[in-house]
Specification:
The chain is α+β, with helices and mostly antiparallel strands. It contains seven helices and eleven strands. It has two domains: about 5-130, Alpha-Beta Barrel (N-terminal domain of MutM-like DNA repair proteins), CATH 3.20.190.10; about 145-265, Helicase, Ruva Protein, domain 3 (Orthogonal Bundle), CATH 1.10.8.50. The strands form three sheets. A five-stranded mixed β-sheet has the order 2-9-5-4-3.
């Protein structure tokens, strides 16, 4: 599932191709992938509009149009956006093709969980999925004192707190496991029981891990690709995620795998406390 580094990589690789481009038409191969307000057609929403901005909020990609409307993309498990400089036949599981003045933008999603949602001008601020999001972990609004306040008194496991998008947005299973290992903190410890010194380590680890993920172009196991169709490489730097039962790269002890809140978590019983 694309997390913050993957969506940010898509944004960065896609922006040079589509900013300022005019949309000629939209082709829906599976109409369920594109969510529109009642009575609004795809042609009325997008045709002859130009791409004015491309932003990210948590795991959401925000494509802003010149009239103030926005297309919000949530990739969910297997969604992808690929830019083709020339018209290209749709790959398997391609559901939406946006024809631009130069090139095409293909949205594909094997599991059909993701969506492109058209939000009319002036209505983005009322979109519930964005309103509930916590601060950006790499932004100025995510500061250590805020982190400490939000975790204070919580009895939930710290791994679950990191995945809570109302506390921090953009983190998923991969980068939460890696950040906890970097900070030396066990994923099942109570959030409110962490010392301030441990919160400081975790705060830094979250930001460092996400920056490393962006620098590596994200993590690719099977489906994820950037807007140019290229794989990420952060999977080659993973120290715990997906490595349950394998030796820790630091101490050599077998990594343990448990479930927290229904999500798999991998940790080192020696390096994390």
């Amino acid at each position: 599932m694309p997390e913050l580094p993957e969506v940010e990589t898509i944004r960065r690789t896609l922006a040079p191709h589509i900013l300022g481009q005019t949309i000629k038409k939209i082709q829906l191969l599976w109409p369920g992938a594109f969510v529109l307000p009642a009575g609004v057609t795809p042609a009325a929403a997008l045709r002859r509009r130009s791409v004015a901005s491309l932003d990210r909020r948590g795991k959401y990609l925000l494509l802003g149009l010149d009239n103030g409307a926005t297309v919000v993309t949530h990739f969910r498990m297997t969604g992808s956006l690929i830019y083709y400089p020339q018209p290209a036949p749709p790959a398997r599981h391609t559901h939406v093709i946006i024809h631009l003045a130069a090139g095409q933008l293909h949205y594909a999603d094997q599991r059909k969980f993701g969506r492109l949602q058209f939000v009319p001008p002036g209505e983005l601020g009322a979109l519930a999925c964005l309103n509930k999001l916590g601060p950006e972990p790499l932004g100025e609004s995510f500061w250590l004192e805020y982190f400490a306040i939000r975790l204070n008194g919580k009895k939930t496991p710290v791994k679950a707190a990191l995945l809570d998008q109302t506390i921090i947005c953009g983190l998923g299973n991969i980068y939460a496991d890696e950040a906890l290992f970097q900070a030396g903190i066990l994923p099942f410890r109570e959030s409110g029981g962490l010392k301030f010194s441990e919160l400081f380590l975790l705060y830094d680890a979250v930001r460092l891990t996400l920056r490393q993920g962006i620098e590596a172009g994200g993590t690719t196991f099977r489906d994820y690709r950037d807007a140019d169709g290229q794989s990420g490489s952060f999977q080659n730097r993973l120290r715990v995620y997906g490595r349950g039962g394998q030796p820790c790269l630091v101490c050599g002890r077998p990594l343990q795998k448990i479930k927290i809140g229904g999500r798999a978590s991998v940790y080192c019983p020696d390096c994390q406390h």
